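Notes, Module 5: Reading structure tokens.

Key idea: the token line is not a picture. It is a compressed description, and you learn to read it the same way you learned to read a sequence, by spotting repeated patterns. We will look at two proteins. The first is printed below with its tokens.
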Amino acid sequence: MHKKLKLPEKNCHTCNKNFLWRKKWQACWQDVRYCSERCRRSKNASIS
């Protein structure tokens, strides 16, 4: 079993929770803003 390394993390722009880097985001990590599809779809609901 592998231990998790110190992975980069960001805050979600919608729910403001921290989320960790995922391998599927390897090529576009700098463009990732939302932790999930649900947050991405409801992005306009949290603008304050």
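Here is the second protein, with the sequence above and the tokens below, as before.
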Amino acid sequence: MATVAAIKAGKTTGAARAQVNQMLPFQWVGTDKRGVKLKGDHVGKSITMVKAELRRQGINVTSIKPKSKPLFGAAGKTVTAREIAVFSRQLATMMAAGIPMVQAFEIVASGQDNPRMKNMLIDVKTSIEGGSSLTESLAKYPVQFDELYRNLVGAGEAAGVLDSVLDTVATYKENLETIKAKIKKALFYPAIVLAVAFLVAAVLLIFVLPTFQTVFKAAGSDLPAFTLMLVNCSDFLIAYWWLVLAVVIGSIVGLVMLKNRSPAFAHLIDRVMLKIPVIGKILHQSAIARFARTLGVTFRAGVPLVEALSAVGGATGSIVYAQATERVREDVSVGHSLQLSMRQTNLFPNMVVQMVSIGEESGALDTMLFKIAEFYEQEVNNAVDTLSTLLEPFIMMIIGVVVGSIVVGMYLPIFKLAATM
């Protein structure tokens, strides 16, 4: 019984401690030393601690209350990679200007519009004030600050060049987000346009064709085979639209879940995507650009090559390249050169392997990797622009064929009636 009581007491104490450590938002109104009225928001553990913090800033608090949560999105939107890049740039600029890290965190956090981002930065600042290193504090948020980010920050802290490393990380993340946006544009633009085309076709079949069907029945003539097929499709969609919608949504959700839960299926999808004409080439170039830039950034920051390779695979955006990077890491860890290990994967073009070889021999591997990244990022930009130009007439042709076929099918009986009159 004593043991049970002790466990309950421990749980109660832990819950109380967690509640005390939780950062809460407050709204306050007060005056400064000149008597000027001020108001604002502040995050803290309690009203007393917030009042004390504001008093240290020369503000006499007249009223303070917990900030009410909005009905929707109370926790704030998800922290994005773009926000992490902006935060890294701001922190690097302030530290380069000589502002202490804790104060820099407080300034950056106060300027955040996303409550979740703001609370995260304040929590990291509190951890640093408690004696933890920046790397250890960031490790509490492994989703927002991945292994690669923490490795780079750790290397910067160890070498005493944290501001320079953070600036490099910000540039790296900005470039990575730019290339991701290009890939999304290449993949989603044709998909969205085609989806709209088939949506228009469904609207014609469900709402427009039945009107013509009434005219066809009143005429009493036999319908052409093509028009009859469209009428049957229209009747099926009207009667079983819910089934068609369920099959489409279920198929999409099922494929996504299967991809997330089955590594073999995800690998298959990734390999098929890499073999699609034009789009596959863009995905190859994008993966190589990410591989080269990520490895170049980590290697220049002083992270050992084997350790750097362990964090590079996930940044390529491709399961095939991630697995190839893991094989490269294993080969390098037993003494093979990087260029030889990359050649064995049969994924990296000869130009890339040769430039890596020259970089290894000359001791300028990071410089060569950056040159590779810049070249392939430009190739991705050009390929996406070319793809958009090439796809536009192809997409318009598909829209014309789908919608035009339905329109022709609807008017065929009218042409037939006119010919018999």
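Summary for the second protein:
- The chain has a mean pLDDT of 80.
- The beta strands are 24-31, 37-44, 60-66.
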